[in-house]
Amino acid sequence: MSDWGRKVWVIIIIKLFIMFVILKIFFFQDFLYKNYHTDKERSEHVLNQLTNSSDNHDRKH
Amino acid sequence: MIENIDLSLVDWSRAQFALTAVYHWLFVPLTLGLSFILAIMETIYVKTGNEEWRQITRFWMTLFGINFAIGIATGIILEFEFGTNWSNYSWFVGDIFGTPLAVEGILAFFLESTFVAVMFFGWNKVSKKFHLVSTWLVAVGATLSALWILVANAWMQHPVGMIFNPETARNEMVNFWAVLFNQVAVDKFLHTVSSGFLLASMFVLGISAWYLISKREELLAKRSILIAGVFGLLSSLLVAFTGDQSARTVSKIQPVKFASMEAMYEGKTNAGLIAFGILKDTEKKIGDKTIKEFAFKIQIPGLLSVLTGGDKDSYVQGLKDHISGNEKLGITSTPEKMQRGKFAMDVLTSYKRARLINDTAQISAIKGVFKEQDFRDKYFRYFGYASVDKPEDVIPNVAVSFYSFHLMVVLGFLFIMIFSVALYLLFKGTLSDNKWFLWIALLSIPLPYIASELGWLLTEIGRQPWIIQDMMTVSQAVSQISTGSVITTFILFAVLFTGLLISEVSILLKQIKTGPKH
């Protein structure tokens, strides 16, 4: 394998390790799938998020 | 609850997404364009049987390989961020965003990945023709990948082909073709892909110019300049044409963005096109936003009216038309849109309350309302306005929009000149003697990168405060996570990306210095 080829493979492996083993597992868990178990719960959460801004708006004005 | 979110969380989440997207876009356009340049070069090799063309193809393929390998999967980080930082948005867009990305993953990415392996490792192992077909399929696959991502982004600029389902709190696709052939998607695809072709052509031209300055690899350099010159000139003309078309579409579909691009506060007929301008703050305001005026400008009278409406009497809308409304032109005011958005929000709130007490009749009735065309067109399309505090909040950053657009246009014309001069000197046989031009070509390599990033800056900042035009603000879209974790990952990305970029540039430079294998 050429010199540049070896370097590039090392970079790819380190990069993919950082991305999928460190970042994805420790820092980038899916917020809704981590905190809610069913789609119904997730949709309720998003519905609350969207409409609570409206409730706050009512209170402010 | 959304309004209680610390603004710094929104800002840091935006900064992190911007950093990732800007970095990702350093790799993509070169992959898009260089893949076609390789395919053209290899076609000449297969047609002529000339071994020198094979060497030239393999040299540029090495540089393509370095860029492809370092850049690969950087886009996946954006998808991580959607799920973690932008969960409300990710859920709300539902399959509208998921479907194009899934098609991209299944069709285009696998097509590209499979044939990349043949392209790199298949020399002397597969037939010439099969290798050539693989190289072309890599180019087509890369372009198709870009298509689906751009379709998804275009939907954020101009949401079409969907119905919101209050039960799932998601938008559901009802017309795939409307999403695919969304005018913004068509313009965006053609403009973005051709800008990638242009960028790669400048990359090839600049490096070839360096070989001529260094008085080495003359054959490779001149043949590469021939391909890059022709491909680059055609691409830069296509970029200008599609950019013009794209601006026309923006003037109709995102008129506030368009008015910001032109720093036009007052609408008018016989509107001039600003060729060059410097903005300054004034004492005047729209609400609490300071109005900017030109400290200096060079203007072509009437041209903006002609370009957008076909003649100089055509009216070009200003920002004030959209804040205060313009009854004569049928432009709805922002306060009216806020009222309509609030009404849509109230209907959704009623649905939520009905669901809490399990009032099935009310649930069914409200679900019916969301299916009504009239409700969707008059109210729900302004859903995001319910979260807007003041009418002037819908004005994006005018200075950033104006400068990024105009600098991009100036660079676009410069590229046409550079490729034209390169071809002229090449055919005249004096290219190697004109060192001044070779240096210009070499130093111009970063310019298409700057122009391309400016294009994205305009696309995304010009759309603020929306993440989905008129339907969802950026603040509504963000997840309630700790600002500290976003700052931590921002720093991690900055370090990781800088390291990768340094690695790529150093490996590329080493390969360029080494040159092709003879």
Overall description:
The complex is a heterodimer of chains A (61) and B (518). Chain A is mostly helical and 61 residues long. Chain A has one domain (3-60). Chain A has 3 helices and no strands. With 518 residues, chain B is mainly alpha-helical. Chain B has one domain (2-258, 394-514). Chain B is built from 20 helices and 6 strands. Chain B has helices at residues 7-48, 51-71, 74-85, 87-93, 95-121, 128-157, 176-180, 183-213, 218-253, 255-261, 303-309, 319-324, 334-356, 360-371, 373-378, 398-428, 435-443, 446-461, 474-477, 483-514, and strands at residues 162-165, 170-173, 273-286, 289-300, 466-468, 472-473. In chain B, β1 (162-165) and β2 (170-173) form a beta hairpin. In chain B, α1 packs across α18, α9 packs antiparallel against α16 (398-428) and α16 packs antiparallel against α18 (446-461). The longest helix of chain B is centred in the first third of the chain and has 42 residues, at 7-48. Chain B is globular. The interface between A and B is large, with 37 and 52 residues.
How many β-strand runs of chain B?
Answer: 6
Helix content percent band of chain A: over 70%
Structural class of chain B: mainly alpha
Termini Cα gap of chain B: 66 Å
Largest sheet of chain A: none
Mean pLDDT of chain B: 91
Tag the structure with descriptive keywords.
A: 61 residues; mainly alpha; rod-shaped; B: 518 residues; 20 helices; 70% helix; 8% strand; globular
Question: Would you kindly provide a brief summary of this structure?
Answer:
By secondary structure, chain A is mostly helical.
Break the fold down into its secondary structure elements and pairings.
The complex is a heterodimer of chains A (61) and B (518).
Chain A: H1 3-27, H2 31-35, H3 39-60
Chain B: H1 7-48, H2 51-71, H3 74-85, H4 87-93, H5 95-121, H6 128-157, E1 162-165, E2 170-173, H7 176-180, H8 183-213, H9 218-253, H10 255-261, E3 273-286, E4 289-300, H11 303-309, H12 319-324, H13 334-356, H14 360-371, H15 373-378, H16 398-428, H17 435-443, H18 446-461, E5 466-468, E6 472-473, H19 474-477, H20 483-514
Helix pairs in contact in B: 1-2, 1-3, 1-6, 1-8, 1-18, 1-20, 2-20, 5-6, 6-8, 8-9, 8-17, 8-18, 9-10, 9-16, 13-14, 16-18
